[in-house]
Amino acid sequence: MRHDRLMYRVIVECDGIGSDDEAEAAADIEQEFREHRSWHQHAACSFCNGMLRLVVENDFDANGSATLDEFADSIAAYVGEHGPVRVVGVERF
């Protein structure tokens, strides 16, 4: 798919999740990004081996810091205890 503007695929992660409902937290965070943070496209959040991972696409976050901040806010709202939140990668396309 071609875009008229430069796009970024941002991947952020958080480990040390202390919730008993990790899969539910992943679904809630994905829904949060799809419905209430629509400036991010194609949001996908998953949980595996104690780690939440969010992948989004947008046209403004070249270093991933904005996505990281919003992901951290969502984790605080839906998870509670957690480890570090970090940008794993940003891909331009």
Short summary:
This protein is an alpha+beta fold. The protein is 31% helix and 34% strand. Strands 2-3-1-4 form a four-stranded antiparallel beta sheet.
Order of helices and strands: EHEEHE
Distance between the termini: 10 Å
**How many alpha or pi helices?**
2
What is the β-strand count?
A: 4
Folded structure, characterized:
This protein is α+β, with helices and mostly antiparallel strands and 93 residues long. It has a single domain, classed as 2-Layer Sandwich (Alpha-Beta Plaits). 31% of the residues lie in helices and 34% in strands. It is built from two helices and four strands; from the N terminus they run E-H-E-E-H-E. Strands 2-3-1-4 form a four-stranded antiparallel β-sheet. Strand 2 (41-48) and strand 3 (51-58) form a beta hairpin. Helix 1 crosses helix 2 (65-78). The chain starts with 7 loop residues before the first strand and ends with a strand.
What layout of secondary structure does this protein have?
Elements (H helix, E strand, L loop, with lengths): L7 E8 L6 H15 L4 E8 L2 E8 L6 H14 L6 E8 L1
Antiparallel strand pairs: 1-3, 1-4, 2-3
Helix pairs in contact: 1-2
Which key terms come to mind for this protein?
globular; alpha+beta; single chain; 4 strands; 34% strand; four-stranded antiparallel beta sheet; 93 residues; Alpha-Beta Plaits
